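Quick board copy: two proteins, each given as sequence then tokens.
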Amino acid sequence: MKKEISMMEEALVYQPEYNLLRDAYLGNKEMLQSKLNYLANIAQEEQWDYHGTTDKPILYNYLCYTYDRIKTENKIEVTDDGSAMCFNTGLLTEHGADIYAYFVKNENQNKKSGQDWFLYGFKQRANVEMRAFRKYPDIADYFTTPADFIYDKSLELSINYEHIINDNYDRFTSIGLTDKYMINGLLENAVKRIIEKVKRNYKLAIPQYYTDKNTGESKIQLLLPLFLQCKDAADLALVVDKCEFNYVGKTILTLEWAYVNSRRIVRPDVDWLKI
């Protein structure tokens, strides 16, 4: 039961605001799945499914995350007559063309309050529908402070190991570790090793964009791989916050959640973050 509660809490913390669902009707389950499949087919190939899924949950979360950021940045475009809306998904076709989410007015008499738009599909600039917009919207921008994307090897990393283990015990048990004393030793060693590695290869630290749902504050955090049981395969990811004088270890994520969070900004291009 503890594991289920913890995973639910993690989902609540690391999930989009879902403004997209408030502002638009995406279609019934079958319609939405067809649109996601189409988008995945025309976009540059990458992994949009977890192991064992086929309904593109990573792509769905990516679109919701992107819309949240796009809306904050006022990068949504509406035609002069108010009949259509679009935003840049941030994805490209195999030929390097931008892909836009294209919406028309939601004319359903039984529509939910606030759902003024209907997701018609995904378009490129060459499509005739895009000619109605005065300009093509830009992609979401997360790069407010570029230095935050690079692990600063001059800063120390502070971790409350007991707190990390107790709060994330279910994530350790999910990979077969149950003895807290043993977990503590493995975790300390894994952290020491990855700090030495990331000092020599900053690309091992992957950025994620995190919004505190209590304060509304958004920030860049870094994800560090934890090789607890094998030197060749990461088991979990450590989330670290950059403070004024040091880094602080905040929590532990499964590799699946780490991938989804990092994909919000950029496609992860490291060997350790494979799901």
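And the next:
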Amino acid sequence: MTQYLYRNVSKVTTNVLQRMRNEGEKIAMLTAYDYSTAKLLDSTHIDVILVGDSAANVMAGYRTTLPITLNEMIYHASSVVRAVKRALVVVDMPFGTYQGNSKEALNSAIRIMKESGADAVKMEGGVEISESIDRILSAGIPVMGHLGLTPQSINKFGTYSVRATEEKEAEKLIEDAKILEQHGCFAIVLEKIPATLAKVVTESINIPTIGIGAGHHTSGQVLVFHDMMGYSQEFSPRFLRRYHNIGEEIIGAVEHYIGDVKEVKFPDDSEQY
């Protein structure tokens, strides 16, 4: 039975997400990078909108998420925030804005919050970013963690394959999840890890977990909007479910428009002054 215990809440907050987790309502999260898409998503009562650094891939065409800058993330986040009334808006802190320097992490997070009006930031990593989390939280900025496959570390991993399949890495991930909770993260994204491990992590901590390629035992799920809508067929991991094939529809509509223009069928008499 579908549960919508908090569908009518006027604004989703970190506290609402915690209550959803405690009461068994799954959290639904999608990415958005622009005003028009965010407005549509917010009208559906989506719980969380992530302004992901995946904008580097789907909006800018980069191979990895590494090139996107803080200024660019703030631009995308500002566009989304202007559209959203209900959903919790979380913004990825891009590569190079927090790793190894907790003072820079705080300054970056403050810029995101002040200049975009977002509700929270998201950071990749475990114990190694704990000092940055502490500094950011000291400024009253909520932090979402991210463990498992962390795309900003792709050059270290060398592959986008499933993470934490070996016992040692799995144990570290569980420990990192506990550390993130202890340092005050309000939720953790678990990306591309075995479903059994995601279940263990979810049961080992008291904050929500949001999975992407991590099975159904997490407190919620997240997908990249462009992937689940079928803008492209090139990216097809096992965890991705396409809910639409908008790419084909866009191509068909544009080809129809081109034909109408070439054949002088557009505009017709009713479409001119």
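Board note added afterward: The first strand starts at residue 27 and ends at 31.
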